[in-house]
Each structure stands twice: as structure tokens, then as C-alpha cells.
Amino acid sequence: MAEENGVAAADQTTDGDLPWRDSVPEATATDLENLLGTGVSAAQEQLERNGGFLPFALTVQNDGEVRLVAVSPADSPAGEDADFDADAMISDLHALLRQNRDDFRAAAVVCDIMLLEEDSDAISVATEHRDGAVFAAALPYAANQATHTWEFGELAADTNEPVIWVD
Question: Stretch 154-167: mean pLDDT, rounded?
Fold first, then answer.
């Protein structure tokens, strides 16, 4: 089990508890779990409604309110097939979050990733708290061509490095 900034990176247990939860203050764990759940749900909704989603962020404001943060996609570099540059959007989200980090106590960046070992797309939610705790998880998904629905795998811990509360 890897440990980064006081948060152990471990898979979710069968009863839904997150083992790293005991290594951080209760308020921090609640903020990170709230962002994780909200991020996964919002991304699933966008997948089901639109067939995909753009990177976005969520914050837990100092008063406890959860807010959505989005940036406009820039055009892809010439010659690329993608309609937008997801990496540039994620960098823009990180920069925007760093600039405004005094306004919130926790944040998450939600994006679509490829899990190479599983050869699967996944919803990635990377959370960070101002107290230094970080946690990330990935939820694999695939389109079911026969039913025209999305099928989701098991939520699993992923690696995460702090990017918002760094100087």
C-alpha cells in the first residue's frame, strides 16, 4: 500500500469503507469523499447524456458548498484528430485552482483517462485538501453496444500528487 501525504492509496474495501480514511482528520476525509462521489456521479451523468465529458473540477468552498469549475477547451494543435486538448484543459484547471485556492478547502479534478493495463477508459477523480491530504480513484467504463448503455467496473484507488497547494 503506497502512502502519499498521509493518505494511503488502497482499494475500496468490500463494505465501501476507504482504509485511508483513518489516517486523515474526519473533516478532511468527508470533504475528499464528497468530491469523489460528486465527481464520479457528474461524469457518469455526462457520459450517459452526451457519450463523453470534458475535464472539470469541483471545489469544497470554505463554507462547505460544493462548486463546479470549468474551463473552455482550446482548439487542438493542427493535425490532431481530437476536437479539444484535454491536457491543456487540465493544466488550465490546475492553474485556476492554484490562483483561487484561498477560496476553498478541497478540490478535485475529474477527467477521462485510459487504463493501459486494463485497456479501458476510466473516470479519474484526483482530490486534494489544503491540509496536504490527497486521494484519487478511477472507475473503468465501457459502452455496451448491444444495449446502448454504459457499463462501469469497480472503483479503485489511483495515484495522485498535490498540484494545488504547492508553491
Answer: 91
Residues 35-65: tens digit of each pLDDT: 999 999 999 999 999 999 999 999 999 999 9
Contact 121, 113 (CB under 8 A): yes
- 72: its cell numbers: 473552455
Lookup: cell for 26: 474526519
SS3 162: coil
Give residue 2's pLDDT.
32
Backbone angles phi, psi at 41, to 5 degrees: -60, -45
> How many CA atoms, within 13 angstroms, populate the side-chain half-sphere of residue 4?
17
CA angle 136, 137, 143 (to 5 degrees): 145
Give the pTM.
0.83
Q: Where are the beta strands (DSSP E) in the chain?
A: 2-4, 7-9, 56-61, 66-69, 104-115, 120-129, 134-144, 149-152, 156-158
Amino acid at 138: A
Size of the chain in residues: 167
Distances (CA, A) of 128 to 2, 45, 145: 16, 23, 36
